[in-house]
């Protein structure tokens, strides 16, 4: 029935959002790292 189809759609959306969140998390973590290292260089 259509109930199973909705479960597949919901699962797909959740997986997509989870992947996006991981990508954004890595992006912000790497930009913070870059910011910290540039501050160290300026501080010297």
Fraction of residues in H or I helices: over 70%
Strand content: under 5%
Number of domain modules: 1
Average pLDDT confidence is: 82
**What is the radius of gyration?**
19 Å
Secondary-structure element pattern, one letter each: H
Distance between the termini: 66 Å
Shape type: rod-shaped
Count of individual helical segments: 1
Number-wise, the strands total 0
- Summarize the biggest pleated sheet: none
Structural class: mainly alpha
Name the poorly predicted regions.
none
Question: Can you summarize this structure?
Answer:
The chain is an all-alpha fold and 44 residues long.
Tell me what the structure shows.
The chain is mainly α and 44 residues long. The protein has one domain (1-44). The chain has 1 helix and no strands. The radius of gyration is 19 Å and the shape is rod-shaped. This is 2-isopropylmalate synthase LeuA allosteric (dimerisation) domain-containing protein. It comes from Nymphaea colorata (pocket water lily).
């Amino acid at each position: 029935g259509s109930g199973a189809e909705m479960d597949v759609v919901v699962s797909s959306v959740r997986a997509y959002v989870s992947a996006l969140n991981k990508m954004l998390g890595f992006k912000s973590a790497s930009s913070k790292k870059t910011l910290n290292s540039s501050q160290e260089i300026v501080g010297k």
